[in-house]
Specification:
Layout: H1 11-19, E1 30-34, E2 39-43, H2 45-51, H3 53-59, E3 71-73, H4 78-90, H5 126-137, H6 140-153, H7 156-169, H8 172-184, H9 186-190, H10 193-196, H11 200-207, H12 216-234, H13 238-242, H14 256-268, H15 274-286
Parallel strand pairs: 1-3
Antiparallel strand pairs: 1-2
Length: about 325
């Protein structure tokens, strides 16, 4: 209930005035060095502290010897940090679906609670960095704005990166939305860079799904590509990188010729434990699904039919 006699001026003018102070040296009393590019960003201590507990703790009650000058924040890109500042100063942020110049201003489609003449626009990929910062800084309202925007613009190029953020920070609804999207666009999603950069826990979520619209042979190839990238980055053997996820590959779905070819390739470049391939051969020899293991013989939505599938005990999902 409003206080009797309390009247409000124009919120738009107030927001525009505060927005003009974003990254403005005028009257600033705190300086950040942000991102790998070490971009200098100016801000105002009292505003950050009253809007965000993270900055209140980081900056302390007043400037002093305990506060580094400048404050270095190397893990957040400068564009994302400027978007966070924009939200803190104006309680709004302009999020864009398409890439624009980091120095540009102006329009884009799909803005949520957007302002005209906002500071640095944010691309769909950058919005994940803003979301990450919102979670880490405890900015719940900004987090919800970013989540709503990501869901609205979710596409093949974005979905795996969004899934990784959801898994990292335990964002259940976004995780479910991403998995559902990948299930419907599996072939395209598996060819993205974001897929190759998934963590093992995120990839496990996908490999456990019965609803992936992709054949198992293609899924094995995708898992090998993922493991090769991880092995190069981590400087570890491919089989070691792949170990947490390859158990979810359903090798019994492959035809004998495909399984033989996989076995030969596995000798040249180990990926899958030998005993897992042996289990698949047992399924062929016995001409029935391994009901004890269940999922190893269960067909996915995109599994192509093969002659031996009629011997599997478990029906197509």
């Amino acid at each position: 209930m409003e206080t009797p006699g309390l009247v409000h001026g124009g919120a738009e003018c107030f927001s525009k005035a505060l927005g003009s102070l974003v990254n403005n040296r005028l009257y600033s009393d705190v300086r950040f060095v942000v991102g790998q590019e070490r971009q200098e960003v100016f801000a105002h201590r009292c505003l950050l502290a009253c809007r965000c507990n993270f900055f209140q703790r980081l900056l302390g009650p007043e400037p002093g010897p305990g506060v580094p000058s400048p404050v270095v924040l190397s893990t957040i890109p400068a564009e994302a940090f400027l978007a966070v500042l924009e939200f803190l100063y104006t309680n709004s942020v302009k999020l864009h679906r398409h890439s624009v110049s980091p120095l540009g201003r102006g329009g884009g489609e799909g803005g949520l609670r957007s302002r005209e003449n906002s500071s640095t626009p944010t691309t769909a990929l950058q919005v994940l960095e803003v979301l990450t910062a919102a979670v880490e800084y405890g900015l719940e309202e900004l987090r919800e704005l970013c989540l709503g925007f990501v869901v609205k613009v979710l596409d093949v190029e974005l979905v795996c990166e969004a899934l990784q953020v959801a898994v990292t920070f335990g964002l259940g609804p976004l995780q479910e939305r991403c998995i559902t999207f990948i299930e419907a666009h599996s072939q395209e999603a598996l060819r993205t860079r974001g897929f190759l950069e998934l963590s093992a826990p995120a990839l496990l979520l996908l490999l456990r799904s019965d609803k992936l619209c992709v054949d198992e042979a293609d899924l094995v190839l995708a898992a090998r590509s993922w493991a090769r990238v991880g092995a190069a980055v981590l400087e570890r053997p491919v089989a070691e990188v792949a170990a947490p996820v390859v158990r979810e590959l359903r090798l019994a779905l492959l035809a004998p010729a495909e399984l033989s070819a996989l076995e030969e390739q596995n000798r040249r470049e180990p990926l899958i434990p030998v005993e897992q391939i042996v289990e698949a051969w047992k399924c062929h020899a016995l001409r029935r699904g391994d009901t004890a293991r269940g999922a190893s013989c269960r067909r996915r939505r995109g599994t192509l039919p093969r002659e031996h599938h009629r011997f599997l005990d478990l029906p197509l999902k």
